[in-house]
């Protein structure tokens, strides 16, 4: 990421990985702005799965996994919390 450089020690195994994964590769996974972010090189099928996972992240409570009454809250660091977890956090 950024200006980093990756050195491949075994070119043979890098070619095997590329052939098996058909060039698809995850370069980074982050929790950013209360959302899942997955970066990499993917085909259209994998891209649609990633988009669904990123969308589902907004609708899932980070503490209990509930999908009901989830909202984003916080200052600086954002959280996706359901109603009961928001109440617990405020206390």
Notable traits:
alpha+beta, two-stranded antiparallel ribbon, 37% helix, elongated
Your description of this structure?
The protein is of the alpha+beta class and 91 residues long. The longest helix is centred in the middle third of the chain and has 15 residues, at 44-58. It has helices spanning 11-21, 44-58, 83-90; strands at residues 25-32, 35-41, 71-73, 79-81. β3 and β4 form a beta hairpin. The strands form 2 sheets. Strands 1-2 form a two-stranded antiparallel sheet. Helix content is 37%, strand content 23%.
Radius of gyration: 18 Å
Beta strand count: 4
Largest sheet: 2 strands, antiparallel
> How do the strands of the widest beta sheet line up side by side?
1-2
| Helix and strand composition category | alpha+beta
Q: What count of helical segments does DSSP give?
A: 3
Percent of residues in β-strands: 15-25%
Give a quick rundown of the structure:
The protein has 91 residues and is of the alpha+beta class.
Sequence-ordered SSE layout with sheet pairings:
Elements: H1 11-21, E1 25-32, E2 35-41, H2 44-58, E3 71-73, E4 79-81, H3 83-90
Antiparallel strand pairs: 1-2, 3-4
């Amino acid at each position: 990421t950024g200006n980093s450089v990756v050195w491949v020690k075994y070119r043979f195994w890098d070619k095997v990985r590329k052939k098996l994964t058909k060039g698809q590769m995850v370069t980074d996974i982050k929790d950013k702005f209360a959302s899942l972010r997955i970066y990499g090189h993917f085909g259209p099928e994998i891209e649609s799965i990633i988009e669904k996972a990123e969308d589902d992240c907004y609708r899932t409570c980070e503490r209990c996994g509930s999908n009901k009454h989830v909202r984003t809250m916080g200052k600086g660091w954002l959280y996706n919390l359901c109603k009961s977890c928001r109440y617990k956090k405020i206390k």
